[in-house]
Write a structure and sequence with these properties.
The chain contains 13 helices and nine strands. With 297 residues, it is of the alpha/beta class. The protein has a five-stranded mixed beta sheet with strand order 6-5-7-8-9, sandwiched between helices. It has a four-stranded parallel beta sheet with strand order 2-1-3-4.
């Protein structure tokens, strides 16, 4: 698979209302599960894990910060009328309204594909985002740039929000999760190379599944068992149907290599790029010729 599988969070007996007094009784595995939920670093010995959770669950508020907040509240009460008339305040209110999160912070469930900034991950975890391991469990897919992984492709088909560092930084700056639609991942280099616009593709995918009504057979020549499983998941997530019978190829799109033409003795086989590009562009029948394979020599 594209990444090592995370420990099963279901094995943990810890709860969302974890009491710091209970931390010592948890196993290292359970402590790491709790750290993962809050987007915190999972490295170190048991004592380090416990202390990290304590610091997160019982943060100390500096006295000067408390005083500043008190003064700010008092100032707000005294100058409320003036503040409400401030043009800058009105602009900020408008921006916050436009950027309001699509879901509440308790519903932000993040799945990461590829490498991602640990610092940003920890900060959105502190804000209330939780981290999950399966595409069907997440609300947001988080990645540095466009990744043609099965997670990314399934996220498109499932209509998930796909965001990157820009969404994290703006959410941290505003101390609220901003609209994922307003901060959809941008990767001009990849979008130009693969001829698509992610924002447009997601909008179309939420209305219709690109492979809906089409049946596919995955030839063994595609690659490993894992590769076959990943491509199968991509097809299903985007509305396609999988056939297990290569003999009944009528109306079935065979996905394989030029060797598949000989193996299965069929006239039409399409490169696996048809699946990847089809999902990214949200196009299918119009790009079939582009990825049709022909017999060699």
């Amino acid at each position: 698979s594209e990444e090592a599988a995370a420990e099963d969070v279901g094995k943990s007996t810890a709860t969302a209302d974890l009491d710091v007094e209970q931390l010592g009784s948890l196993t290292v595995s359970q402590l790491k599960t709790e750290l993962r939920k809050h987007g915190l670093d999972e490295s170190g010995k048991k004592a380090n894990l416990i202390q990290r959770l304590k610091d997160h669950l019982q943060p100390d508020t500096p006295k000067d910060e408390t005083s500043n907040r008190k003064r700010a509240r008092e100032s707000g009460k005294e100058g409320n009328e003036t503040l409400s008339e401030s043009p800058r305040s009105k602009r900020n209110q408008g921006k916050l309204k436009r950027d309001r999160a699509d879901v509440t912070k308790d519903e932000i469930k993040v799945l990461i594909t590829g490498e991602f900034d640990v610092n940003l991950r920890q900060k959105i975890g502190v804000m209330g985002a939780s981290f999950v391991d399966k595409i069907e469990e997440c609300t947001h897919l988080l990645c540095e740039n466009v990744k043609r992984t099965h997670k990314f492709m399934c996220a498109i088909g499932s209509g998930k929000y796909i965001v990157g560092p820009r969404w994290c930084k703006e959410s941290i700056a505003q101390q609220m999760f901003v609209s994922a639609d307003s901060y959809c991942l941008r990767d001009s280099k990849a979008e130009g190379r693969f001829k698509f616009k992610l924002k447009d593709t997601l909008s179309q995918a939420r209305r219709t599944k690109v492979f809906e009504g089409h049946t596919f057979f995955l030839c063994k020549e595609i690659g490993s068992t894992q590769a076959l499983e990943d491509f199968g998941q991509m097809i299903l997530a985007n509305g396609g149907i999988l056939s297990k019978d290569p003999k009944n190829s009528n109306g079935v799109y065979m996905i394989g290599t030029t060797e598949s033409l000989k193996t299965y003795k069929v006239h039409s086989v399409y490169d696996k790029e048809l699946i990847l590009s089809g999902i990214l562009r949200h196009r299918f029948t119009t790009i079939l010729k582009e990825f049709a394979l022909k017999k060699r020599g």
